Structure formats: C-alpha cells, structure tokens
Amino acid sequence: MLREPPVTDTSTETGGRWSLPQGFRDPRDAPVVDDVLELVGGTPLVRVNRLAPDAPGTIYVKLDQFNIGGSSKDRIGVNIVRSAIAAGELAEGQRIVDFGAGNTAIGYALAGLATGHPVTIVANATLSPEKANLLRFLGADIVPGRNDVPTDHPENWEAIAARYEREDPSNWWARQASTAYNPSSHEESTGPEIWEQTAGGVSHWIAAVATGGTVSGTGRYLRSRRPDLQIIATDWTEKVDKSNLRAYFERRDGWQELERDFPENIDLDLIDRIETRSKAEVIDYGWHVARTEGLVLGPTSILSLLVAVELAKEVDPGSVIVSFSADSGRDYVTREYNPDWLRANGFSEIADKYVPAP
Length: 358
Ligand SMILES: Cc1ncc(COP(=O)(O)O)c(C=O)c1O
Fold this sequence. Notes:
By secondary structure, the chain is of the alpha/beta class. It folds into two domains: 28-69 and 185-349, Rossmann fold (3-Layer(aba) Sandwich), CATH 3.40.50; 91-173, Rossmann fold. 36% of the residues lie in helices and 14% in strands. The chain has helices at 73-86, 103-115, 129-137, 157-167, 181-197, 213-225, 237-242, 245-249, 279-293, 299-312, 339-344, 348-354; strands at 45-47, 58-63, 95-99, 119-123, 141-144, 171-173, 204-208, 230-236, 273-277, 320-325. The longest helix has 17 residues, at 181-197. The chain starts with 44 loop residues before the first strand and ends with a helix. Pyridoxal-5'-phosphate binds next to helix 6.
C-alpha cells in the first residue's frame, strides 16, 4: 500500500546520482521548509508486522511524534493560536493559558514563539519530566494544578486556567477541551493524511481520548469519505467510569442527570465504541511493543495499539486498522518505561519482567 523507496535511483531524471542504504527514504521525499511551524502534519504511517502476524486485519500506526514539537498536539496548538489570531480572539501581546498534560503546551509554545505570545500551562503531577524540561527550555511557565478534584475546587486545573483569564485581561484561555479549532485541526489535516496514505482503504480508526479532538476530528473526515468506517475511542478504565463518559455513551438510565465531566470535543454521536484498558496492562504492553516491533510509543498510543491488535484478529480480511500514536515513548523513559519508577509506583512485576533485578 505504501510506496516502497528505491534502493538505488535508476531514474533518468536524476541521472542515477545516488545509491541508498536498504530501506532508506528517497532523497526527493525529504522536505525543505521556510519555517519551523511548517514541520507540523504530514506524519508517517508504519505497518505493524510482528504483534499479530496471522491476523486477517492489517494495522498501521500513525506516528504523530514526527511533528516538530514531538506530538500530535502541535497540530492543535498551532491551529488554535493561528485561528484565534485570525478571528481577533487572541490579541497582540496576550498570554496564552491552558491546562493539559504538556503536549498541547509545547504546540502553544512553538506557535507562541512564532507569533509573539508567551505561554502558561496549568499541569498536574503526571506531567513527565521530559516535557516539563522542554516547556521550560522553550520559555513557557508551568503552574501546578490538579485533575483529581472537581472543577469547583480552587486547585482544579481547569478552574485555575479560568481564573487566570477572569482576573487578568492580558491572559487568554485557549480552551483546547471545547474550542472547535481543536477537532478542526484533525479534520483538516490528520484525516486527509490517513485517507491519502491508505489510498482510501482505512476501515477502522482508533485513537485515545483526552479532549476528544483527535478521535472526533479525524473520525469526522474519514467517516465523510467512508460512511461505514468504524471509529473506536480508547481510554483508561478508571478515568472513563469516573468522568461518566461511558454512562453517557451508552445512554445509561439517568445519563441526562449525571455530571458531564468530560470535554465537549468528544463527539459521542460519531464514536462506535469506547474501549478501556488498565494502566498496568498498557505499560506492560508498551515494553513488549518496543521489544517486539522496535516501536517506541507513549502510553496512550500503546493503549490504542493494544485495542488494534485485538481487533485485527476479529475483523474481515482486507480490513485496514489505523491506530493513532500521539507521542513517543522517549517522553516516558523516566516514568512508565523506567524500572526504578515502576518499582516505586506499584508496578514491580513489570519491572522484574523486562529488567530483572541482578
Ligand atoms: C499523549 C496524549 N495522548 C492522547 C491524547 C488525546 O488526544 P485528544 O486530546 O485529541 O483527545 C493527548 C492529548 O491530550 C495526549 O497528550
């Protein structure tokens, strides 16, 4: 399905001027751009070869860590900032404020540097040291917040972002959880990329949800091209139940009265299934995937890949499953992919399995 790069260039057009090491990409595919922000989007798909070798379905992973800031959130950070400037919502000199796990903040930081806006991110304790250091390196401020308390709690990360905007008009809250510029980034870029890369063959789209922008925006585009496309959202078991996402999705008795503790950008009418897995299962699989496929993926990417591998065994032959990778496992080598962290955080069995104590 994907174009194989030539090992040796034999074209008369280039005069056969190079001989590529096996599997290396054609030099003519290497981009030259005028600005850092042009290195957002156009990320590769890689086929999964060894995790489910005899399955009828084929799995590809969309590697969005290839964006310049290292995650899918470059797409939304850049698009939110540019769109808000164009619409007159973000005025010159205003500070961009939002809450999140760090990836969007890196996108905001890059867009902010290009457009002259400083950035403050309200982050909780799960912000990885790699991302925190990168944000500081890029000049962003990090304010501690919590997502384990309700939004009316003063330490809640969303409440803090809202307070920043309310109390100081020089702050502008970017609202990644509800702004339409988030899913539209994916509807206008990630979706068309996957459609083109699979030559319209994609049959299943799987992505983890936080704000829901990725699964919804990409899903909306792909569904518009292929009405029978299956859209599967993945998330942590504990989080989905706590936020009432599953109760809403399944329209369980009394769902209208429940507190809706999940973002507006999760489009429940679009999603066919919500699959959840535990943290321990996913971390373990992350180590397995790295050592089996050589694919180094962040935990949410592994969560989706785990679901994709199970699905690949059930689907009709010819099915093409695209599983989304939001960021790289490199951002987690001091946490989930570190035996010391695992042992200190209740995951000793995983540490012992992959890095046996001497
Ligand atoms: C690592 C990672 N995975 C998955 C997601 C989910 O993406 P979305 O917010 O589009 O649902 C995010 C976004 O917050 C993320 O940072």
